[in-house]
Amino acid sequence: MERIGFIGLGIMGKPMTQNLLRAGHSVVVFNRSPGAIAALVSEGAIALSSPKQVAQHADVVITCLPDSADVEAVVLGDDGVIEGARAGMMVIDMSTIAPTTARKLYDTLSENGIQALDAPVSGGEIGAQQGTLSIMVGGDDAAFQRALPILQAMGSNIVHIGVAGAGQVTKACNQIVVALTVQAVAEALTLAKKSGVDGAKVREALLGGFAQSRVLEVHGKRMLEGKFNPGFTLDLHRKDMNIVLQTGRDVNLPLLGSSQVTSLMNALIAQGKGGLDNAALVSLYEMLGGLDANER
Amino acid sequence: MERIGFIGLGIMGKPMTQNLLRAGHSVVVFNRSPGAIAALVSEGAIALSSPKQVAQHADVVITCLPDSADVEAVVLGDDGVIEGARAGMMVIDMSTIAPTTARKLYDTLSENGIQALDAPVSGGEIGAQQGTLSIMVGGDDAAFQRALPILQAMGSNIVHIGVAGAGQVTKACNQIVVALTVQAVAEALTLAKKSGVDGAKVREALLGGFAQSRVLEVHGKRMLEGKFNPGFTLDLHRKDMNIVLQTGRDVNLPLLGSSQVTSLMNALIAQGKGGLDNAALVSLYEMLGGLDANER
């Protein structure tokens, strides 16, 4: 079995590492803050002191970090993965970052004989814990085939989309669809409420027809109950929407709906709600419509 | 069994009437144009010459017409249903109209001892043919119970939402969610295409996660294939969005997403595409993004 290095042991990275350990992989880890290190070491992981060291002791290095700049620094920066790497290694970035950064990483790593995949995930903390993440993969087919048994320890819906960057483009598409569907459900349920109509009945009726979606099912319920404990925070979704809008600029495509919903997220974050689940978008509509959230 | 009158024998009304006939109801019909009359008469319907006459020969009158003004004229206007009606009758309006008009009809009919339900549908021509429509009902419970066996001949997902107008509010909510989800999928698939990523793979990956919806499944496929034969036309969806925006104004709720997507529908209709399926929204993004539709 390949020796794995895992860098970035946050809400997603920690349970993903645990699933790799449980699948029998030897795993070396690095994280900027000590947070999850002790728990993972007690399960068999070995803690190292830099991304460079991780690369020196692994065949496949996985990164799972907040944003494009973090991944670029960890992989290509001082004491980074590339400094400890050798030809034949593989780097799998499972963060959500800009497709342009993913392509840059691929180009630089390829020049050094290192395979690279962009493999962002969806499914959240629960999907990470249960090993049922959706994984959207960009990169060469040979690298994908090599990575597949490793990815299968972490996810259940693993699709090889295309060349380098294609995984990140797909994740951007995913975040567009989720954001606009959340807005759709928020707008509809607030209109029902303002019109004196029972939102639970509306949700039930709509789930039986063409308006059906997972967002209506899960977030519709959260909105009706006013339960916005994350979940997936507005802060993180807005970060991903910034990648979406940047990707739109890169190809000169106006993303009218994505621009608007990102503006609404900006407003919620300005109101101190960035740490709430993205279903809290409904609270902005309630505020705009003069509804007291306490009456929900 | 109740004697039924059916007014409005268009794409939806004709197959709905056929299902009532097949369920064993006696049905009298009226339509402004002769179109579907002959076919329905050959299946046992009796053709009459005005909404007033229909009311005189039926216990329950169903209307299925294009817009608010049509229903108001047919029910309350000259030679209308109300002129031939008597106490104890029932009127079920299955058109998609403004909730305010539905409430006005309810009030006027109630004053005359006539039961009234607003019962708009979703599920399209195929749902009408197969008797599997979703039916969203507003009105009194006694009227709903009386109507249920009749509605069951036409639909399979029948929900009593609340008081008069609640069915139409629910239909407005349904059209919001469908419109914004269509926009979401159009924006995502165009971004994929502009980025050189296979939209079919993106759709497949997204269907396995939180971005899943019926719209992504059905309209996503239509967009990828460029097949925009209706379906549900942009003309009709824009008409319904006008009801949505009017309902938002009535309760002073800004419907930011609905306003934007209605503007995009306006643009498509200006380009002569109003007769296409609403999935053709993607063609506006392709045009904006400088993609030749022939390259799809």
TrEMBL record, chains A, B:
<comment type="similarity">
    <text>Belongs to the HIBADH-related family.</text>
</comment>
<dbReference type="Pfam" id="PF14833">
    <property type="entry name" value="NAD_binding_11"/>
</dbReference>
<dbReference type="InterPro" id="IPR015815">
    <property type="entry name" value="HIBADH-related"/>
</dbReference>
<dbReference type="Pfam" id="PF03446">
    <property type="entry name" value="NAD_binding_2"/>
</dbReference>
<dbReference type="InterPro" id="IPR006398">
    <property type="entry name" value="Tartro_sem_red"/>
</dbReference>
<dbReference type="InterPro" id="IPR036291">
    <property type="entry name" value="NAD(P)-bd_dom_sf"/>
</dbReference>
<feature type="domain" description="3-hydroxyisobutyrate dehydrogenase-like NAD-binding">
    <location>
        <begin position="165"/>
        <end position="285"/>
    </location>
</feature>
<dbReference type="GO" id="GO:0008679">
    <property type="term" value="F:2-hydroxy-3-oxopropionate reductase activity"/>
</dbReference>
<dbReference type="InterPro" id="IPR029154">
    <property type="entry name" value="HIBADH-like_NADP-bd"/>
</dbReference>
<keyword id="KW-0560">Oxidoreductase</keyword>
<keyword id="KW-0520">NAD</keyword>
<feature type="active site">
    <location>
        <position position="171"/>
    </location>
</feature>
<protein>
    <submittedName>
        <fullName>2-hydroxy-3-oxopropionate reductase</fullName>
        <ecNumber>1.1.1.60</ecNumber>
    </submittedName>
</protein>
<dbReference type="InterPro" id="IPR006115">
    <property type="entry name" value="6PGDH_NADP-bd"/>
</dbReference>
<dbReference type="InterPro" id="IPR013328">
    <property type="entry name" value="6PGD_dom2"/>
</dbReference>
<dbReference type="GO" id="GO:0046487">
    <property type="term" value="P:glyoxylate metabolic process"/>
</dbReference>
<dbReference type="GO" id="GO:0050661">
    <property type="term" value="F:NADP binding"/>
</dbReference>
<dbReference type="GO" id="GO:0051287">
    <property type="term" value="F:NAD binding"/>
</dbReference>
<feature type="domain" description="6-phosphogluconate dehydrogenase NADP-binding">
    <location>
        <begin position="3"/>
        <end position="162"/>
    </location>
</feature>
<dbReference type="InterPro" id="IPR008927">
    <property type="entry name" value="6-PGluconate_DH-like_C_sf"/>
</dbReference>
